Amino acid sequence: MGRGKRWVNRVKRALFGITVSLIVIYALFPFIWSFVSSIKPLNELWTPTIRYWPRHPTLDNYKDLITKTPFSVYFRNSAIVASLTTLVSVVIAALSAYSLSRFKGRFSASFLRAMILFHMFPTVFMVIPVFLIMKTLHLVNTYAALVFAYTTFSLPFCVWMLKGYFDSIPYELEEAARVDGCTRAGALWRIIVPLSAPGVIATAIYTFIGAWNELLFAVMLTNTTSMRTLPVGIKMFIGEYSIEWGMLTASGVLASIPVAIGFLFLQKYLVQGLTAGGVKS
Amino acid sequence: MLHGIGRAVILALILAAVTAVVLGSSTQRVTLTYMVPGDAARAAIIQQNIQLFEDENPDIKIKAEIIPYQSFNSKLLAAISSGNPPDIAHVYPIWFPILVAQGVLTPLDKWVSSWEYKDSVFPAAWDFVTWDSHIYGLPTILQIDWMYYRADWFKEEGISPPNNWDEFVAIAKHFTRDGRWGFGFTGATGAAGKYAMAMIMGGGGRWVDEEGKAALDTPGGIEGFSKYIDLFRVDRVCPDSSPGNGFKENLALFAAGKIAMFFHNPGSLVQVRKAAGEDVVGTWPIITLAGPTSNFGVDGEVIFKKCKSPEQAWKFIRFLASPDTQKRFYQGSGVLPTISQVYDEPPLTNDPAISTVSLIMNGFLFPEVPLIPANWQLLKTEPPGIIQEALLGKISAEDAVKRINAVLAKILAEAKK
Amino acid sequence: MRAYSGRNHRSIWGCLIEGPLFKYLLVTPAILLSALLILYPALKGVWTSFHRVNLAQPWQGTPFVGLDNYAKLFRDPIFWRAFGNTLIYTFGAVTGQFFLGLITALLLNRSFRGRGLVRGLILLPWVMPGVVAALMWGWMYNSDVGVINDLLSKTHIISHPIAWLADPSTAMLAVIGVAVWKGFPFFAVTLLAGLQTIPRELYEAADIDGASYFRKFIYITLPLIKEVILITTTLRFSGIFVYADLVYVLTEGGPANATMTLPVYAFLKAYNNFDFGYAAAISITMVLFLFVLALVYIRLMTLTKSGLG
After folding, report:
1. Among residues of chain A, what percentage have pLDDT more than 70?
2. Residue A181: its pLDDT value, please?
3. Of the partner residues B74, B264, B275, the one whose CB lies closest to the CB of residue A241
């Protein structure tokens, strides 16, 4: 029994490792291709046979990107806008989701359906009316305009997701806390949110990435270099008659890595452990 | 006595106040908003130009909004339709008929008539910005198309660039061997329409005939287009991926040594040279049934009627159109100037590719859009899809030309009367 | 946190928080923002769809045309082509993303060395800016200079390069491939979050009973993440159905409308042709269809579950 089982386990582990590796390669490949292209000089980008590694690798593109273009400004703007959006979205959505999760009834059902409807509106014809609204409020070319717009459009998703995660937290926990003198608001922030942390983090990631990569509103609502976000800045590398591949691929790399690294640190909060001992039976 | 001093003081105060007001208003800065399309490289030049202009004209401040190309149209449109156009804008050729039809531009005649470089601008450029006998824009970039060819391959085999259609096809066939193709057909993106139009016009089609009706589908026009499509379908001198290829694909193919020729705009010369190598890149006019052919348009600077300081606005666009500024644009981003005297000076005289420009200017030119105020957008956006269908054999060349002609006719019908 | 001496002594704030209006108060910020920035433009869009609005031709005014734009829809073969394409694209993309994401989530739910790193790397497709991702994939798919054809040829899987994006018969598949790649991390992350809330004790109990992996999955895992699956697939389906950017950058709906989807069509009509009336009609039709579909789907999936009233 021993040797047979060990062999089966070994195969299982190997399969596991292979599958994980395949998925990682699949996820990473275009990114690697972007990186390889970014360290190639322009005359090596298209050669008679495809080169998977340049003969004369160069970091010039990265140097030029950071020193000669406003890339760092764009990065800063995207970071600020995305962070603020995530914070505001999660807070507002958590409040709404708590209401929908704990106070069921006709109102919450209609509100949920409205949220799904709002999630379905394509940005195509929203862009110009939203631009006009921001213009009336004198918010064009400010962080506020982007944060408001992004928050509003990520709310339907966040509300739905958080409600789902909140639903899975038993009501008994809050009741117990309120007996101990906690207010409803306190129950929300001290019990429900921490227990549904994986869901909150997932929602936060969704919102952050959405705001990080959003293009249409960013183009419409920003006018100057000082306010531009990364997606618009990257679009600027597409010229009228040419594309700056070096800058583009380098910025693809630099715009993605920090967020992925950020998630690397955050992902330990996705683990269980916070729920351990929470549910009695 | 106090009376006298009192009066003097009051008088002095009044004088001071009046002087302050007069001085204040004359040194009051005029701020002009300027919308311009640009990529990262051009943005640097634009900002440099603005700095130079503001140094020379301290009473004028330019607030520039530099917009990525693919979003320029929608941003300008949003600004105009919300009643808040910029004071000045740099617009593509397609915008002239649209803006003129909307009646939102200030005519520039009175300033142009006394402009020192008026006669140095190509006459065709003036034609393009003159509507209803008024000049509505100052031309600053020449928009023509030309062809890139592998000068190294041609030199190796002692072949010289084609002078007529038959030679062009023969050369394309000659180079289609050993995994290479003779001609990189542009089947996708807006440019596909421009080259197809060149072929139709070269065969004899015209935007409108004498009666003002759409006239692309003459037998000659259909023949021109048909022979063009046959390059892919019959002669098979084009890559299989042609229906999806735009400039970036053709450049990749060209640099990788897979195609011998392809069409594009002179604005990409710098990048093509860098990607493929200087000695590889040759330039030549596009050859159609009419010989060297090209569409012709100009980018220009326009002043909107809503601008409250047109005199200062004129100063700025005059600066933008001056030879030195145009030279700076050429050096920084490879776009072609509209003033002929610039072509006779370095650095343009140092570049052999620029001689192709005069070949083109002396060849057959047709305006990029019909010179009738209307919304010609559809004329840019519909043809590529129609051309793809013809390439894939879903419709015949004749049907394709007739459909494009129908689009043209529809726009004419909806034009402002 | 405010201190209360029991329920006898209430301030106005206390009344609001503890009273029956609390549930409305909570949703007020969301309602305000949505009303201003979604509802109002949406209503404006509906108004636009009943008028003829071409922003580049203001001399025509914006006359009321009733259902003309919608009638035009019905007669437009490209609209119907786009409709069908959108269904194919969305189903294909969501299914692919979901299954790949589920597998990934299940794998990442187990502990192994380097799990943290993998969890971070998995995010990269999702994080990569859309423009760069689409341009890279376009390049990779190219039949002459693309790495996909190169690798497939070198490993003798194909003998002749395939023009993935230029050939109408493969274009849709190629586009769906990119969508799956870009979106599966979303499912991986959200499903993983759902999996993490399942108490370990349940699996341990099943192990004692000798249950196989398959049985554990069907009888423990699936039911407990059913809610998450429902929500994420519904939202994802809606999101992808109306999302134009990816397809637009890859193919602009070509070749010859092989990959034309409704949102791309609406986008092109609005920003290429400036025909906002027609674009609005397309968008409204799209939303109505999607909404009905979503309601049906939800009803089907939650025959017993509460929460939707």
Report:
1. 94
2. 74
3. B264
ipTM of the complex: 0.86
d(C-alpha B334, C-alpha B42), whole Å: 10
Q: Range with the lowest mean pLDDT among A9-13, A157-161, C116-120, C213-217? A: C213-217
| A30 with C181: Cβ contact below 8 A | yes
Show which subunits contact B, needing at least 3 CB pairs below 8 angstroms.
Answer: A, C
- Selection from A272-281, B3-12, C76-85 with the highest mean pLDDT: C76-85
- Among left, alpha and beta (phi > 0; psi -120 to 50; other), residue B29 is beta
Residue A221 burial (C-beta neighbours within 10 Å; 0-12, 13-18, 19+): buried
Q: Is A22 on the interface with B (CB under 8 A)?
A: no
Phi and psi torsions of A93, nearest 5°: -65, -40
Task: Report yes or no: B277 and B151 within 8 Å, Cβ to Cβ.
Answer: no
Show the DSSP H helices in B82-218 as ranges.
95-102, 109-112, 123-129, 151-156, 165-175, 191-203
Tell me the pairing of strands B286-288 and B281-284: unpaired
- Which residues share a beta bridge with B208? B214
Read off the pLDDT of each residue in B125-151 and give the average, rounded to a whole number: 94
Please answer yes or no on whether B255 and A46 come within 8 Å at the CB atom.
Answer: yes
- Which uninterrupted H or E stretch holds B229? helix B219-233
Residue pair C262/C82 in contact by the 8 Å Cβ criterion: yes
Mutate to test the interface with B, among A219, A236, A237 (most CBs of B within 10 A): A236
- Say if CB B216 and CB B200 are below 8 A apart: yes
> Strands B364-367 and B291-303: what pairing?
parallel
Strands of the sheet containing B146-150, edge to edge, are B181-184, B259-264, B146-150, B281-284
Mean pLDDT for all residues in chain B: 90
The β-bridge relationship of strands B214-215 and B206-208 is antiparallel
Return phi, psi of residue B48, to 5°. Answer: -65, -45
Say whether B214 sits in a helix, a strand or coil: strand
Q: Supply the pLDDT for residue A277.
A: 33
> Looking at the partner chain, which of C251, C256, C268 has a beta carbon nearest the beta carbon of B394?
C256
pLDDT band at C88 (very low <50, low <70, confident <90, very high): very high
Distance, C-alpha B235 to centroid of its chain: 32
Tokens of C158: 């194909």
The closest alpha carbon to B117, from B271, B319, B292, B258, belongs to B319
What ranges make up the beta strands (E) of C141-190?
none
Instruction: Check CB contact under 8 Å for A157 and C235.
Output: yes
User: What is the Rg, in whole angstroms, of the alpha carbon atoms belonging to chain B?
Assistant: 25
Three-class SS state of B72? helix
Given the structure tokens 């740099």, which residue do they identify? B90
Q: Which residue of chain B has the CA closest to C54?
A: B375
C32 touches chain A (CB under 8 A): no
Asked if residues C30 and A92 have their Cβ atoms less than 8 Å apart, the reply is yes
C63 contacts B106 by C-beta, under 8 angstroms: no
How far apart are alpha carbons C6 and C244 in whole angstroms?
55
Neighbours of chain C (3+ CB pairs under 8 A): A, B
CA gap C50, C41 in Å, rounded: 14
- Alpha-carbon distance B332 to nearest alpha carbon in chain A (angstroms): 13
The dihedral over CA atoms of B82, B84, B89, B91, expressed in degrees to the nearest 10, equals: 10
C168 CB-near residues (< 8 Å, 6+ apart): B392, C255, C256, C258
Q: Which chain B residues are within 8 Å of A219, Cβ to Cβ?
A: 67-68, 71, 74-75
| Alpha carbon distance B56, C291 (integer Å) | 60
Q: Of A46, A239, A242, which has the smallest distance from its Cβ to B252's Cβ?
A: A46
